[in-house]
Amino acid sequence: MVSTEQSCWFIRKVICWRAVASIAWAVLLLPPITLVFVIISKFSFLHPIQTISECLYLLTSASGIFSFILLCGVILIVGFLHLEYYTVIPTIACSKIALLGQLLHPRHFINSLVHCFMGVIVAWCCAVTMGLRYETLGYPCTESDGHPQMCLNEYHLILLLAGAFVGFSHSLLGVIYNMNYVSFHTVQQYKYLRFKRCLPLVVKCSATQALYSVRNYIVMYLFLGYIPRAWICKTLNLHLDSSVHPLDSIAGLLDLSLLYHLWSSATFLLLTWNITLLLFRIFVTEVYSFPVQSSFTEDSHQCLPKVLTEKQPMILKFLALQDLALLSQHSPSRRCEVFSLSQPGGHPHNWNAISKECLSLLTDLTQRLVAYHDTVATNGRAKSLSSGSERKTSSETSVTSGTEDLMSPRPVFLMKTPASVFARSVAGTPQSPLTSLFTPDLDSPFASPALRRLTAPVDQCSPWYGTVQSPHIMRRAPKLWSTSTDSQVNGSPTPSPASVPSPKPEPSKPSFLAQFLQNRKEQLPEASSQALFADSQAHIWALEGLSYLVQASFSEDQFGVVQTTLPSILSCMLVLQEAVDRHFKLPHASSKPVRSTSSMGDSTYKTLRFALRATLKTAIYRITTTFGDHLNAVQISAEHRKRLQQFLEYKE
Amino acid sequence: KLHSRTESSSKAAFLDHSETLWMRMTCKHTNSPVIDAFAVPKWLSMSSGCILALLRWVSSFHGSLFPHLTLSSEDMIAEFSQVLNWSDCVVRAFAWHPHTDKFAVALLDDSIKIYNPKSATTPTLKHRLQRSVAAVQWKPLCASALAVACQNCLLVWHVDPCSLSTRPSSGCAQVLSHPGHSPVTSIAWSPSGSLLLSASPMDSTMMVWDVAAESCVPLQRVGGGGVSFLSWSPDGSHVLASTPSALFRVWETRMWTCERWPCVKGRCQSGCWSPDGSRLLFTVQGEMVIYALTFTDAPGQLSHSGPQAAAVVADLSETTFSTPDGDIVVGGEIQSLVWDPRGERLAVLLKGDPQAADRPAIIAVFKTRANPIFELLPCGFVQGEAGAEPRLMQFHPNFQHGALLTVCWSNGRITHVPFYFVSAGVPHFGLSGSPLLPHPQQRPADFVNQSLFTEFLS
Lengths: 652, 458
Prior knowledge:
The structure holds two protein chains of two kinds.
Chain A (H helix, E strand, L loop, with lengths): L2 H4 L2 H34 L5 H13 L1 H24 L10 H9 L1 H25 L7 E5 L5 E5 L1 H23 L14 H34 L1 H11 L13 H4 L2 H29 L19 H5 L5 H17 L1 H8 L9 H31 L7 H14 L10 H6 L4 H6 L6 H6 L10 H7 L1 H4 L1 H4 L5 H5 L9 H5 L22 H10 L3 H8 L3 H21 L4 H24 L23 H20 L10 H11 L4
Antiparallel strand pairs in A: 1-2
Chain B lengths: L20 H11 L1 H5 L4 H24 L7 H8 L10 E6 L6 E5 L4 E4 L8 E2 L9 E4 L6 E5 L4 E5 L14 E4 L9 E4 L6 E4 L5 E6 L4 E6 L8 E4 L5 E5 L4 E6 L4 E6 L5 E6 L5 E6 L4 E6 L7 H4 L5 E5 L3 E5 L2 E5 L3 E6 L5 E6 L11 E8 L5 E8 L7 E6 L6 E8 L4 E8 L5 E2 L30
Antiparallel strand pairs in B: 1-2, 2-3, 3-4, 5-6, 6-7, 7-8, 9-10, 10-11, 11-12, 13-14, 14-15, 15-16, 17-18, 18-19, 19-20, 21-22, 23-24, 24-25, 25-26, 27-28, 28-29, 29-30
C-alpha cells in the first residue's frame, strides 16, 4: 500500500479504524446471510424440516466451517480494497474513450482480476455448501470399455466460472458507475438506522444485478464454454463423461434448477460484497467532530482551522467541512469558539483561517467555471473538460514535479486532485511507461484541448495564478485538436509553438482512427458539466458553514470579527452566483440526469451542481435576511450592491 | 367570481389512465375469447383464488386496524387537511411568502394563483399533475420556490418573481414522487430552506427531500399507519408528525430520531410551535382542549429529559353567548391552530356544527403569555359575513405592527384581520387601526374586516 507512508494521523487514527469496524460488522453479518443462502438454495417444499436439519448439519461440518473461513477472508480483502480504492470525488469520464482508459488502467485492471479470483473462491464455497452435484470438480466414472477414470463435473466448473464472471463484471460496473465514490448525506442519521434503511435496497440491487450477470454469463458460456472446459480437462487430466450432456448447449443450460442455483449464488456473492461496501460507506462518512481549538499545542494540528487547510487526504478535508457546516448550524458553544480571539494577542485566528479557506474554495470554483465558460465561448461549443483525465494529469505533474515551486501557484488544483484513484498509484513513481500508456498525457491526441489548456499554464503560470482569467492567454495555446476537423480545414486555429513547447507536431490530416476517436469523445455532453462540479460537496458545505456563521455572528459575535470579512464573503458569493448562473445557461448544464435506482453506484454527484446552485442562493438570502438594511453599510462595489439589492427585495 | 369546477369540466370526458401495462395485459387476456379457449389447470385457478382471498383478508385486516386506508384519496385529503370541509372549499390552500408580501392561493379548479401587491401580474400555475392540492408552502430563504402537495406527487414550482408571464410553463415545476407516497396531505420546509418534508396518510414513511437533487430519504417508524400532518418548529430543531391513529411523533432534526406520544382519545388534529421552538401546542380529535408540550433542553437530548406528559392549557368546551342575533354556542372540537410569529396571538379554528344554525364555525383568538407561567387569555372571536364560515387561516410571517391573521372563508373571500399591539404589551383593539393596512389586495370585495373583538373575561 503506497499511501501508508504519506498517510496522516487522520487516516491512521480514524479512517482505518472505521474501515476495520465496517469490515468487522460485515464479517459478523456473514453467518446469517450464509444461513439464509443455504436455506434458499437447498429448500424443498416437500421436506421442510429435513432441509433445515440438513442445513444446520452442513454449517457445522468441517467443509462448511472451512468455506466459511474462506468467505471471511474474501470479505476482509473486499473491505481492504474498498479502503484502498474509495474516493470522495468521483472520476467522471467525459467521453467513451476516457471511460475505456479508466477500465483498462492497470490499477483498475488489477482490482478486476482480484475480484474475479475472489468470485471463484466464493463460488467454490457456494458449491461446497450447496452440495449435491456441484460439490466436486471431478468424479469417478467408467469409460465405455469399463476402465475407471476421473471425469470432469461440469456443474462445478460452470459455478466456479460464474463466480469469476460475476466478480469481474461487478468490478467493471463499479468503475462505470463510480461505485468507489463515497457520498455524504444531507440528512444525518445513526448508523444502525441508515443501515436498516439501505438494506432492502441492497438486497434488491444484488438480486437484479445477479439476474443480469447470470443472463450474460449464460450467453457467454453457451458460445465460449468449451474453451475453459477443454483447458481444465487438459491441465487436470480429467475426462469428459460421454454419457452426460455437455452444458454448453441450449438443452443443457435450460436446466431450471441449475439457473436457480447460479442466480442464488451470484446473489449471495453480490450481497456480501455490497453489504461490505454499504457498511464501509456508512462508517466512513460518519460525522467526525474536530475540536475548534485546543489548549495543547501538540494537538493543534487536529483542530478544525488547521485541518481545513490540509490538502492531502481528501476525506479529511471533506469531514472537516461537514463538521464546520454542522457546527455552524447546531452548536452555539462551538460557534462561540470560532468567533473567539486568541489569548495572547487577541487575533481572531480561528475565524480567519476558516473563512479564508472557505473563500479560497469558492474562488477556486468561480475560476474553474469562468475558465470553462471561456473555453466554451472560444470554441463555440462545449468541449469536454475532461475532469477525470485532467485531474490525473495535473496530479501527476504535481506529484512528479514534487517539491518544486510549481506547486505553490496552484494550490487549488492540488487540493482537488489527490483523491483521484490514479493519483495514488502513480505517487512517488515518475510516470512509468505503463501508466503513461493509459493516462492521456498532453501530447496524445486523446487529450482534449481544454485539458491541454488547463495543464499548460503550469508552465505559463499566468492564467491560473491571476485572479481574472484572460481568454487571450488561453487562446494562444495550440488548437490542433480543439474543434473537429472542419474547423481545422478553414484554418482558424493557428498553432503557436512559442507558447507551449511540448506538443509534438501533429499530422496535418487526422487519420481515420483519430477521427473515430474524436467522434467518440464528443458523446457525453453533460459529463463535462458534472465533472466541473464533481467536488462541489465541499463548496456546498463551505457555503453553508460561512452563511450560518455569518448569520449567527449577528447576535453571537461579540468582538465583531466577522464584520471585517463580510464584504469579501458577500462579493465572493455574488461572483460565484454570477458564474453559476452563466454556467447554467449553457446547453446541457441544466438538463437533469437520468435517475438510476437499481444500482449500488451512488449517483449523487450527478446532481451536485443543482444542489450547489440552490445552496448558494439560500446562503446569500440567509445573509441578506439576517442583516437586512445593515448591509447598506458594508463596503462592496456598486455592481455587487445592485445585485445585493435584488436579493434584499427578494427578486432573485 | 367563484372559482369552481367549470374550467376543468372537459376533464370528465377523458378517462384517467393509471393502469400499468401489466394490468392492461391481464385485462385484455381475461376478456379475449382466444385465451378462454385454453382451459386453465384447475389447481392453478384454485391456488390463485386462495392466494387472492388471503391477500384480501390481509388487506381487510390491515384496513380494520387503520380504517382511514379504505378512504378514497379525495376523502382522505378532506379528512386530514387543515382546511375545514376541504372538498367543497373554494380556497383549498393558502400560503404567505415567509419574507415578502406575497401569497399563493390554491383554488378548487386545481390552479394556484400568486398575488403580489408590488407587481401587476398574478401568475396562474397549472400542471397536469397538480390535482387535489392539499397544501402549499413557500421555501424559506428563497424568492421563487413554492412546494405544492398534490394527489399523486409533490410539485416544486420555481416562479421567477421578475417574470411578466402570467402562465409559467409546467417546465418550471419539479415533480417529486415516490411510489406509495400519495396522496400527499402535508408538507413542511425546514426553516433553513434546505430540506422539504412530505407526508401521506397512506404511507408510514415520512420523506425528507433534497429538492435540488430530487432525492429523498424515507424515515420510517412502525405504527400509526401513515403520517397526516407535519409542522416544523420555527427554530428548525423539531418536527411534529401526527399519524392517523392515536399517536404522534416529535422528531428531532439533528439525527432524526423521534419520540412517540400516544394520545388517549384520537389522533392529533393540529399543532403549532412557539417562535423559539420550545413549546408545542396541539389538539386531539374528539377532545375540546389544547395541550402543551415544553421542550427546554438542547436538541439532541430530546429523549432523555423531554417532557413527560402534555399539560392542558385551554379548555374550549361549548359555551353559550348571547348576541343581538340570538344565542350562539361557541366551542367544541378544534380544526386547526395557528400561532403568530411573535408568539403573542393564538388563533383557533373551531369546527362548530354545520347542521345547527347556532353553532357556527368560528375563530377564537387568544393572547399568549409565556412568563411567569404559560397561559392563554381569551381575546375575542373572528366572524365573517352572514353565511360565511372560516375555512382556513394563517398569520402573516412578518407584520410590523403586531399580528395579521389571514382568513379564507367558505364564500371564497380572503380577509386580513390585523391585531395591533406593541410587542409584549397591551393590545390595541378596534377597527380604527385598519387604514394603516399595508396590503391592499386585488381580490374583489377586498377588505372585509367584520371581526367582533368581544373581549370577555373568563
